[in-house]
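We emphasize that the prediction below concerns an isolated chain of 193 residues; any contacts that depend on oligomerization or on bound cofactors are therefore not represented. The input was used exactly as deposited, without trimming of termini.
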Amino acid sequence: MILRMKKRCPWCLSDPIYVAYHDEEWGRPEHDDRRLFEKLILDGAQAGLSWITILKRREGYRRAFDHFDPEKIVRYDKKKITALMKDPGIIRNRLKIEAAIGNAKAYLALKKELGSFDRYLWSFTGGKTLRQPRGTMGDLPTTSPEAEAMSRDLKKRGFRFVGPTICYAFMQAIGMVDDHIDDCFRSKKRKRN
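Result of the prediction step, given as a token string:
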């Protein structure tokens, strides 16, 4: 009997952690406010690094940042920042750590104003997943008009490490954009055929 391997997006084939992330998370619509906040912070932490670097430290981030509880994060003081700077389970970059704290404040202000981080984020795509044909990895953009609009508005609200490229990667991660290549078993286009 010949076993057929599932076709996947080529970016995930270098590591079993990547494969699991691709198969179980990447591109699946996420609507839980706390999980959305976590993913935004992790995508910001990725700036200048590969996603696998962050993915391998995700549990370290969850532990270090109180499971991304924004109510706790906003109370982090200099002592906590010093402890985070010594934590080998995360990327020890002061700007990124301070941005996570500031982003928790901005997140809480946004939720107070609008009630839902989920509704706010998904408003940039009209509440739906955007899908364009993606025949190869070369067809994947690094930003979009929606990501640029999200970036501008997040920055206006006080968020940091939320440039258009980070916002686009975030949108891919949370399923606002389906960028699985067409022959990937997770591609919505493939499932329609």
